[in-house]
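Catalogue entry: protein
Contents: sequence, fold tokens
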Amino acid sequence: MRHRNSGRALSRTSAHRRAMFRNMSASLLRHELIRTTVPKAKELRRVAEPLITMAKEDSLHHRRLAFARLRDREVVTKLFNELGPRYRDRPGGYLRILKTGFRAGDNAPMALVELVDRPTADAVLAD
């Protein structure tokens, strides 16, 4: 029984899952758009959205918590200097998941994960 066990296992060990979401959230915050499978995208929301909420209030404590989760100084700087102020008035829902069809090799459902209200949203999706 899976009572009180939340989250998808994604056929990975807990350490692999933790490292994968750490890397995915750093890539998402750096590039503001990534392509991944739909289940991973839905789980990524649980990791990335609290980081953006944390960045709304710039303090040393929040920066250290964000660095402990991301382990990337450039991404933490961008998170607090650009993304936190950008989403200060938004109460949540910072990510958009757009389904893009199925992967050719294994027919896995794919999705684009992007930050809402990003400045170059139209230019990237037009490619």
User: Anything to note?
Assistant: The mean pLDDT is 95. The two ends are 45 Å apart (CA to CA). The first strand starts at residue 33 and ends at 37. DSSP finds five helices and three strands in the chain.
